[in-house]
Design a protein that fits this description.
single chain; 476 residues; alpha/beta; 5-stranded parallel β-sheet; 22 helices; 12 strands
């Protein structure tokens, strides 16, 4: 079976099927790094996206990555957890040619013009221009391994296959080798995540791959030149620790690129909206996405949090997904068809996300209190940014003579709006909070806007609030 068929991608029928037809088509062989360089330059000149889906790196990380790829360097991305390192690495394979020829059935994807494994050299000598050719899609030219302390040389490079020995082949026969992940990604992009977690002896095994571009397996006199772009990721603290990574391996990477968390609030919001997988049937308005994004940035900057571990972008993504789930739960219990998230859906994320944060030792026992305080700050900051100049007299007049408004986790949008009654300026309130939603004055968005305004007034000490279980009452 061809590599393309095995992977689920079907190659176009008009592509050459033999070595002779491939030569006649005028195909020119390029190295992996040559393909990446040429396709990157072509996209630059055409103004096309080079790294789709990557947010917040346009002026910092991506120019450095582009220089490394244009230089033909293997590279290592350094950054704390959740900064999008692996996501960025995976986009690099999109810079490869869509289809590339391989010798039919080759375990290490030899190019038909210059096969390197013993099997393919024998086939080429036997068949000549009739050597069968299959086509490999770029989506399959990417390999990835999470480095762990128990990762062995056999996993990455290869080992002797005892089954082949049992078949009667001699120990010196190169075909008794079972290739590891790196050779099987020959002519592709290989990602090694958390590089410093590899044992030192395994790091040594990568030295030849990075410099001499070949592999050695259990003392075999086997020189197998590899054509691979190797990209690794690591935490800066581990990568700079001599006890975690050997110096010769660091020296063999051509480029080192530092990543970071989204520099701007707008980038954080865009990232959350792009990556969050919200449950069907629930809607999270923009002002709540902004609140969770601000909350994430406050947690990241908090003196109570260990800044060496970082606060992953997954923190905000999981937060928004939890907010949507809370709204969905309310909808199921109160009969709302399309529930819209409200401020009352924010507090549940504190306990949900607590395990994603590493606190300083002195904050033991105060984790929930710290996060709840930062969430209130984020809500107040979003209120000032969105409704700071809004006319809320229509809302505050409700409390002029001792009125109250009841809301909460299990209060439907319709019940909340009935408690508020006709509200002057409601359309302007919705437009300020969700300018791009195109929702109009739907009950769900109206209730979400009203409750957010009430919470903002409370946090700015213009209202008081009593909360008992799942019910909240705002009063003067």
């Amino acid at each position: 079976m061809s590599a393309a068929a095995a992977s689920g991608h079907t190659a176009p029928a008009d592509l050459p099927a033999t070595l002779g037809a491939l030569r006649a088509s005028g195909h020119v062989r390029r190295t992996v790094k040559g393909e990446v360089r040429d396709n990157l330059l072509r996209r630059m000149r055409a103004g096309e996206p080079r790294f789709p889906g990557i947010v917040g790196f346009d002026d910092t990380v991506l120019p450095r990555v582009e220089r490394a790829l244009l230089a033909g360097h293997d590279l290592v991305l350094l950054g704390e957890r959740g900064q999008g390192k692996t996501r960025l690495i995976r986009t690099v394979s999109g810079l490869l040619d869509e289809w590339t020829p391989v010798v039919e059935g080759c375990p290490i994807n030899d190019h038909p013009y210059d096969p390197v494994c013993a099997r393919c050299r024998a086939l080429a000598a036997e068949h000549g221009d009739d050597l069968p050719v299959s086509w490999w899609h770029r989506a399959d030219r990417y390999g990835e391994k999470l480095a762990t302390p128990d990762t062995g040389v056999g996993d990455l490079i290869g080992d002797i296959d005892p089954v082949k020995l049992a078949e009667g082949r001699s120990l010196g026969d190169p075909e008794t080798v079972h290739y590891g992940l790196v050779p099987r990604t020959n002519r592709g992009v290989f990602c090694l995540n958390e590089l410093p977690d590899l044992a030192a002896r395994i790091q040594v095994a990568l030295l030849n791959v990075l410099e001499e571009r070949d592999i050695q397996i259990r003392g075999y006199a086997l020189r197998l030149p590899l054509d691979v772009l190797l990209v690794a990721s690591a935490n800066p603290e581990d990568y700079t620790n001599r006890g975690r990574i050997i110096t010769p391996l660091k020296d063999r990477f051509g480029a080192e690129v530092r990543t970071h968390y989204p520099p701007d609030l707008s980038d954080e919001i865009d990232l959350v909206r792009q990556e969050a997988d919200l449950p069907a049937g629930a809607v999270v308005p923009l002002h709540l996405v902004e609140t969770v994004a601000r909350f994430t940035r406050l947690v990241r900057d908090s003196a109570s949090v260990d800044d060496r571990s970082g606060v992953s972008a997954r923190f905000a993504i999981a937060g928004i997904e939890t907010v949507a789930a809370s709204a969905l739960r309310r909808g199921a219990l109160t009969g709302e068809d399309t529930p819209v998230a409200r401020v009352c859906d924010l507090p549940p994320i504190v306990e949900t996300l607590q395990g994603k944060v590493e606190f300083e030792v002195g904050e033991e026992g105060r984790e929930t209190e710290v996060l709840a305080h930062l969430l209130r700050r984020a809500t107040a900051d979003t209120f000032r940014a969105t409704l700071g100049g809004a006319d809320l007299t229509g809302l505050t007049d409700l409390f002029a003579e001792g009125g109250t408004v009841e809301t909460g986790e299990l209060v439907s949008a319709a019940d909340l709006l009935r408690g508020v009654g006709p509200l002057p300026g409601l359309a302007d309130l919705i437009a300020r909070l969700s300018p791009d939603e195109g929702t109009g004055e739907t009950p769900g968005f109206a209730a979400s806007a009203v409750e957010f305004a009430l919470e903002g007034l409370y946090l700015n000490r213009r209202l008081s609030k009593d909360t008992v279980r799942d019910r909240t009452v705002y009063r003067t």
